[in-house]
Amino acid sequence: MVPEGGKILKVAAIIPAYNEEKTIGDVISKLVKNSQINEIIVVSDGSEDKTVEQAAMFNEVKVIDLLENRGKGGAVKAGLDRSDAEIILILDADLIGLTQAHINSLLEPILNGEALMSVGIFEKGRVATDFAQKMAPFLSGQRALKRDLLENISNLDLSRFGIEVALHTYVEENEISTEVVQLPDLSHVMKEEKLGLWKGISARAKMYWEIVRYVAKIDPGDK
Known about the structure:
With about 220 residues, the protein is of the alpha/beta class. It is about 40% helix and about 25% strand.
């Protein structure tokens, strides 16, 4: 926990996961060793593999097993509802090469009062994932932020893969301080690698469609 103006702030890591049995354990193993994190919540978003079992192997972790897939926004909302932490760290469950330095880099701007949200960008990880994030950095799934930013997003649970766009839109419209953090040598497993080329492309297209659909519903005047 981190003091702020005499108050102790609680830090929670929320990991939304859908069929990530191969990588979730490594991500959790890094989080449990970080002294700045007080709570770890894994939200299995309708997983059909052993994601829940892998996460449950860690006694320090609170596991939420959603029976139906709600998308990333719904999974994050489920985790948020089970925590009272003032600072939230959101990480993808399929990260490759996560280190304590990466975790601390995301948290420090928030803990030090330098920003209300940090966004992590892959750097020197793998060409494909680096390129994708440089093209659309606001879609990064690695970020730390004050809890109230998430609470101020209307229909967060309905945003599915549009959660990053929703956050980006909200902080832009409200001029909220955000810091971009480089995450060297970090990457994640791409959908094409998990599902095979054509199924992966189909899943990626579905993700982008959900983002576009969510953006189309955003009312520019809605704060």
